[in-house]
TrEMBL record:
Cell compartments where the protein resides: Periplasm
Protein name according to UniProt: L-arabinose-binding periplasmic protein
Keyword Transport belongs to the record: yes
Species this protein is from: Paucibacter sediminis
Signal peptide stretch: none
Domain Periplasmic binding protein/LacI sugar binding: 28-300
Keywords carried by this UniProt record: Sugar transport, Transport
């Protein structure tokens, strides 16, 4: 018998034996994220902890950088008698595996940030999801870039548009598509688009991707930069700086607004990281954890799909915007 299988039987037996008294068991919810080192996910966890404190359940936080760690984490949750979990998986194509594991262990599951898909690439509707309104937020990025280009008197025809791309993730693709469409609507010629595919969604991989793209396209003296999150844009900004493209020749707007962006805004002199669309780690962390806890306690399932909005935040208006968002 495989260790996983044995664990399953034990968990199942415990469930049966506990019988009616099980209701008295303390409520325990898991919160699994793909990139625990990223400030966005740290914030989500912090707000989930707050929900646990407010609502009286315990929270188990586990980083799941790959599929193997993800499966082990779900088994681990079951072994320690958790009753449900929130997940941002390392690969959305693991959706069916997540759903099967949750069912096998009798765990409620809700996804956050990255919506899980089935074998055909279709979102799994039976797993409740909270994510950002990706395309719309991408458009806010593009509009912000276009507006600042105008303010600086840059001619769209002469500006390169660097898209740090991670197209295997639907929310990433939709975000950058929204930004691109807004830039085109503002007059950016389609031919000025340069794609920089990143191997992983962190700053280092964005840096490498942008470096290659800048090298291949030496013709542009000015650039706008966008990507799926702040890390993507920051990587490209650092790559630009390394080639002498400074704040007057490079303009980037990210998505997130967590510490990655705040550190950049805190620097004495403005960098090419002009702004970010601030999204809500509070909603994604606090609400999802509370919703899963409520699902376990009261058998009331979360809404099938919740899409959250964002607000453009720049170095200048950061304090006001953060206050308005309750951060
Ligand atoms: C994805 C990204 C994160 C963050 C969230 C927001 O998971 O990888 O950086 O942008 O979406 O939902």
């Amino acid at each position: 018998m495989s260790p996983t299988r044995r664990q399953t039987l034990t968990a199942g037996a415990a469930w049966l034996l506990a019988g009616p008294s099980r209701a008295a068991e303390p409520l325990k919810i898991g919160f699994l994220v793909k990139q625990a080192e990223e400030p966005w996910f740290q914030d989500e966890w912090r707000f989930a902890e707050q929900a646990a404190k407010d609502k009286g359940f315990s929270l188990v936080k586990i980083g799941i950088p790959n599929g193997e760690k993800m499966m082990a984490a779900i088994d681990n949750l079951a072994a320690q008698k958790a009753q449900g979990f929130v997940i941002c998986a390392p690969d959305v194509k693991l959706g069916m595996a997540v759903e099967r594991a949750a069912k096998r262990h009798g765990l409620k599951v809700m996804s956050v940030d990255d919506q899980l898909v089935d074998g055909a690439g279709k979102p799994i509707a039976s797993i409740p999801h909270m994510g950002i309104s990706a395309y719309e937020i991408g458009r806010q990025v593009g509009q912000g870039l276009a507006e600042e280009m105008r303010a600086r008197g840059w001619r769209a025809a002469e500006v390169g548009a660097l898209r740090v791309a991670f197209d295997q993730l639907p929310t990433a693709r939709e975000r950058t598509q929204g930004a691109l469409d807004a830039l085109k609507a503002a007059g950016l010629p389609a031919a000025n688009l340069v794609d920089a595919p990143q191997a992983k969604t962190d700053t280092e991989n964005a840096f490498n991707a942008a470096n290659i793209a800048f090298t291949k396209h030496p013709g542009f003296k000015r650039w706008v930069v966008f990507g799926m999150n702040d890390e993507a844009v920051l990587g490209a900004v650092r790559a630009g700086e390394g080639r002498g493209l400074r704040q007057d020749a490079l303009l980037g707007i990210g998505i997130g607004g967590s510490q990655t962006a705040l550190n950049e805004f805190a620097k004495a002199a403005a960098t090419a990281f002009f702004g970010t669309v601030l999204i809500s780690p509070r909603r994604h962390g606090y609400e999802t954890a509370a919703l899963v806890a409520q699902w376990v306690a009261e058998q009331q399932a979360p809404p099938p799909l919740t899409l959250t909005s964002g607000t453009l935040m720049t170095r200048k208006n950061q304090a006001d915007v953060r206050r308005q968002m309750g951060l």
